[in-house]
Design goal:
Elements: H1 5-22, H2 39-55, H3 69-87, H4 94-111, H5 118-123, H6 132-157, H7 164-189, H8 195-208, H9 210-218, H10 222-230, H11 233-245, H12 266-290, H13 297-318, E1 322-323, H14 332-353, H15 359-371, E2 396-400, E3 403-409, E4 415-419, E5 422-423, H16 431-443, H17 447-451, E6 454-459, H18 464-473, E7 476-481, H19 488-495, E8 505-506, H20 509-518, E9 523-526, E10 562-568, E11 579-587, E12 591-598, E13 605-606, E14 609-610, E15 612-614, H21 622-626, H22 630-644, E16 645-646, H23 652-662, H24 681-690, H25 699-714, H26 718-731, H27 736-748, H28 752-765, H29 770-782, H30 786-799, H31 804-816, H32 820-832, H33 837-843
Parallel strand pairs: 6-7, 6-9, 7-8, 9-10
Antiparallel strand pairs: 1-2, 2-3, 3-4, 4-5, 10-12, 11-12, 11-15, 13-14, 15-16
């Protein structure tokens, strides 16, 4: 076995842990799995990892003689956590994963040592032969354990932010508890009964113990979750104090207060995972620690691999859409745990009846295992983000193989779709940015192709706004797909309630992949995803967590097919990742999106704007992200993205973006959206330097400067408007968005005549813009031209008769001009809306002398 058998055993365990961590299906395996991996694919990857481990556990090899033991399990945990949180290295293609699997299996077998030589055989007894009946029984027990444990693990992951780093923490906690159970109770159990019976019984009991974990999670409502986490704060206070006295060398002083706001951090995830997994992991760890024949693990691991493959099909067979009223009577997680527990009990019966000893004891244990779930019959558990600022009351919930689908209302009342709490559709305030992404992707298609019938594939969930944008692009022969394609019909029935039915047809992911391979599509676009909601009450907007970017970039398309995969600028990206070519768009300079382009060679510029690349992403490691509060992760990720961006055509542009997003920070929740955005002077200079001297404006430059115009206006920064906006407004006139901002800046500095010039130029481009008409009236009033101001207001009212918001705005403007007709309009508005406090206070003031013209035009309503 070599000179240092202990070191060889530890190396074997650590390598096995690294292999288990590495062989997790990443996002981006193909175009249909950019947002979420199909359940069957995810199960297959993990099953292959278990099979590789089973091949390396032959009891005839020296490293496994005497069973795995607590030391090997500890090394397994170390390797798993080390790879997931520190190394974070994954293959770059499917072929890379196959090569990793083969090489990892060979390394494990080599580390296990060669089969016992004659010297070893003389010194030790040969391993006990395992009969076919016992192998079959252990296989069935392993299958049942996988079903039950994976069901519990899925529910635990719903209490995280759903990233691969969170999965590493959950898996690492489980493996650490296995090692603790093995060292604490394994030696004691080894003295009891025969190994054949005790191992099978404990293995089956671990499946039944998952019910304890489900019961714990079921009581974690908002108050229960908050109260449970706060119990651990006194312990952490001691660690924080100790670290403070040591100058912060331990890195513990930054541990956040444990409550709902810290969901997704390292400590909160570890505490919740440990509490939920302690019962099954201790029972399973005890079984492994007492085992002396590693050969018994082999059929159990093979059965567990089969369970991971079977589980997605079982979920598809049993999962049905449920309304909010039906959730209280549905116990989907309990039913899966029951299936797993019953299967494990059946396997224990097989082991017992095919043996020669302890048959009655084995059957009795099997009966107890099967009855455990019925101690808490029909346990109801729906983990719907209990840390959310408001209770989640979904309209529809559907357990699928890919995760828990839920249709729920965002803060503004719009229905959004979530999958395992990850948001798949935009909220109302993001619809403008979502439309811009679709139009930018469309603009990359050659004009000749746009003019004809375009065979298109949309990857993601379509919504009514998205359907309207797609319908406006051109003649599309549209297919729609996603890993949750089987649920799309039921989801769209509610999303499109009262609207036109969605365009195109839903195709399976397999059909979409086959058509992509044949080159049947001209245009492919994949929508981005967003992370779960986080606890941070902001008056300006809801704060959603960061989603993961695809790990693989091998998304090549056949000739004649153009594809664009969109990702959020706050998405988590593995260090060293390379993306090229990229297009980019910003959303009010508070966030941005990048689109990975395939199937088209982009030059220095494109119809969608400058072309970017990311050469070796320098983002934080998973361990660093886990130690960052969820509300702060977006800023950290956006800094990493922009710091890695390069643009050969306009090098100042990524520099400006890096400076701007590097200056962003979490602001007061009581500030407006504009107030929460920091302005960096050096970034403004870089943006100004990157602006073209002449010619047509590209989409990115236009949206960037329009965002700055909005910011300067909302933040009341007239000096910056005059320094940066006015030159560009003159250079690319007419530019209504900039002209409007410059006009308001001149009004701020009391130059209404100059302001009127910019307003009038903007009105030439947008003659029916209501806000511009109000601005024009304000300028006229400031210049003392009250009749002119009143005439413009009458024109505004005539353009939009009957609109309450227009009537209110015109009434306020008329009152500022001293026109009595304004009071009449506002009195009518207050009669229809008595809760308008501003109008109530305004109308309570004494009436000013009338300054307007005589008579009331019919368009302003009847004269009382």
């Amino acid at each position: 076995m070599g000179r240092n058998p202990w070191l060889r055993r530890m190396a074997h365990g650590a390598t096995a842990g690294i292999l288990l961590s590495c062989l997790r299906a990443p996002l981006g395996l193909d175009w249909t799995q950019l947002v979420v991996v199909q359940g069957s694919t995810r199960g297959l990857f993990r099953a292959l990892a278990l099979l590789a481990l089973a091949l390396a556990l032959a009891p005839t090899r020296p490293v496994m003689r005497g069973g795995p033991g607590a030391g090997w399990l500890a090394a397994l945990c170390t390797g798993f956590v080390l790879h997931g949180l520190a190394l974070d290295v994954t293959p770059e293609s499917r072929a890379g994963y196959v090569l990793t699997l083969l090489c990892g299996t060979l390394v494990l077998r080599a580390l296990a040592g060669s089969r016992a030589n004659s010297e070893q055989t003389e010194q030790s007894e040969p391993p006990e032969a395992i009969g076919h009946g016992e192998r079959l029984g252990l296989f069935v027990i392993g299958l049942g354990c996988a079903l039950a444990l994976e069901t519990l693990a899925h529910e635990v992951r719903l209490f995280t932010l759903g990233t691969s780093a969170d999965d590493t923490v959950v898996g690492g906690v489980f493996l650490a508890l296995l090692a603790l159970g093995a060292v604490a109770f394994g030696p004691l159990l080894a003295k009891l009964a025969h190994e054949r019976t005790r191992f099978a019984a404990c293995l089956a009991a671990s499946a039944a113990a998952t019910v304890a974990g489900l019961l714990f999670l079921s009581v974690l409502s908002l108050d229960g979750l908050h109260g449970y986490l706060r119990r651990f704060d006194p312990i952490l206070d001691v660690l924080r104090t100790l670290d403070g006295k040591l100058g912060g060398s331990l890195g513990l002083a930054a541990i956040p207060t444990l409550d709902g706001a810290s969901i997704g951090t390292l400590w909160t995830t570890a505490i919740l995972a440990a509490a939920a997994l302690i019962a099954p992991s201790f029972v399973l760890g005890t079984a492994l620690g007492s085992m002396r024949h590693a050969g018994r693990m082999v059929p159990a691991l093979v059965g567990a691999a089969a369970g991971l493959v079977v589980l997605p099909f079982l979920i598809r067979a049993r999962g049905v859409p449920l309304t909010s009223d039906q959730l209280g009577g549905a116990s989907f997680a309990w039913e899966l745990a029951l299936v797993g527990t019953s299967t494990a009990a059946a396997g224990l019966v097989v082991v017992a009846v095919t043996g020669t000893t302890a048959r009655a004891a084995g059957c009795a244990c099997a009966l107890l295992v099967a009855l455990v779930p019925w101690l808490r019959p029909r346990l109801v558990l729906w983990s719907l983000s209990p840390w959310s600022p408001k209770p989640v009351r979904p309209e529809l919930v559907w357990p699928t193989a890919e995760g828990l689908l839920a249709l729920e209302s965002a803060r503004e009342g719009r229905l959004v779709l979530t999958l395992d709490r990850k948001r798949l559709t935009p909220v109302a305030e993001e619809e403008e940015a979502d439309e811009r992404r679709l139009r930018l992707a469309w603009s990359l298609l050659p004009k000749k192709q746009q003019a004809g019938a375009v065979r298109a594939l949309f990857v993601g969930q379509i919504t009514p706004p998205r359907a309207r944008v797609l319908a406006s692009l051109g003649t599309l022969e549209l297919d729609r797909t996603a890993p949750w394609h089987g649920a799309m019909a039921a989801l769209e029935e509610r999303l499109f309630r009262g609207a036109e039915p969605p365009p195109g047809r839903v195709v399976t992911a397999a059909e979409a992949r086959a058509k992509l391979k044949r080159g049947d599509y001209h245009w492919v676009v994949a929508a981005p995803a967003f992370g779960p909601i986080v606890t941070w009450k902001s008056e300006a907007r809801e704060i959603w967590g960061s989603a993961e970017a695809p790990r693989l970039t091998d998304l090549e398309l056949p000739e004649g097919t153009l594809g664009i995969a969109w990702m959020g600028g706050d998405s988590l990206v593995a260090r060293g990742t390379e993306f090229e070519p990229l297009i980019l768009t910003v959303e009010r300079l508070e966030s941005f999106s990048v689109g990975l382009v395939r199937g088209l060679e982009l030059g220095a510029g494109s119809a969608a704007g400058p072309t970017f690349r990311v050469a070796g992403h320098t983002g934080p490691r998973p361990a660093q992200i886990l130690c960052t509060m969820p509300q702060l992760r977006a800023f950290r990720n956006e800094r990493a993205w922009t710091a890695s961006l390069r643009c050969d055509a306009a090098p100042e542009l990524p520099r400006g973006l890096a400076l701007h997003f590097g200056a962003q920070q979490l602001s007061s929740p009581y500030e407006t959206r504009a107030q929460q955005i920091e302005i960096e002077e050096d970034a403004l200079r870089a943006f100004f330097a990157a602006a073209p001297e002449s010619g047509a404006l590209d989409p990115l430059t236009r949206v960037l400067w329009e965002a700055l115009a909005w910011l300067f206006t909302e933040k009341r920064m007239p000096e910056q408007s005059l320094v940066y906006l006015e030159p560009l407004a003159e250079r690319f006139a007419p530019w209504p968005a900039l002209d409007r901002a410059v006009a308001r800046a001149y009004l701020e500095v009391l130059e209404p005549a100059t302001a009127l010039r910019f307003v009038e130029r903007a009105r030439l481009a947008l003659p029916e813009d209501f806000e511009l008409l109000l601005e024009s009236a304000r300028c006229a009033q400031e210049l003392g031209d009250v009749p002119g101001a009143v005439a413009v207001l009458e024109q505004a009212y005539d353009l939009y008769p009957g609109r309450p918001d227009v009537e209110r705005a015109v009434g306020l403007a008329l009152m500022r001009c001293g026109d009595a007709r304004g009071r009449k309009l506002l009195e009518r508005r207050l009669a229809e809306n008595p809760d308008d406090q501003e109008l109530r206070e305004l109308l309570a003031r004494p009436q000013a002398p009338e300054a307007g013209g005589e008579g009331t035009p019919p368009s302003l309503g009847p004269d009382d």
